[in-house]
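**Backbone description:**
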Amino acid sequence: MKICIINGPNLNLLGKREPEVYGSTTFEDYFAGLQAKYPQLQLEYYQSNIEGELIDKLHEVGFNNDGIVLNAGAYTHTSVGIGDAVKGIETPVVELHISNTYTREEFRHQSYIAAGAAGLVIGFGLKGYDLALESFLR
């Protein structure tokens, strides 16, 4: 089973940025643990701070993967384009957020991705990636 994890803006700073919200583990370290924990999955990881690059990646993997885990970061709340890309591809997408967006600023309560997503995982820290992967295994 082929799964692509796509992370959006500022998620390259995990482990450094607001550790009280996002923890102190880098995503690269966490991803290595996911690969070890789920050897039956062919996992790919992609991160970009650029909206168009995220859309391009969704188009690239959205017709030949078994699943996508998408943490679009702040673009979740602003990007109609990413939301449209999720709706336009065949591969199921699980929208993911490390923090509970509903306990944060009100503008973070809106998602342009959710309407096209197969499901959402919100507020479980990095463990949310495990939950998203598990959803594809069921």
Q: What stands out?
A: DSSP finds five helices and five strands in the chain. The helical segments are 19-22, 27-37, 51-61, 80-88, 127-137. The two ends are 12 Å apart (CA to CA).
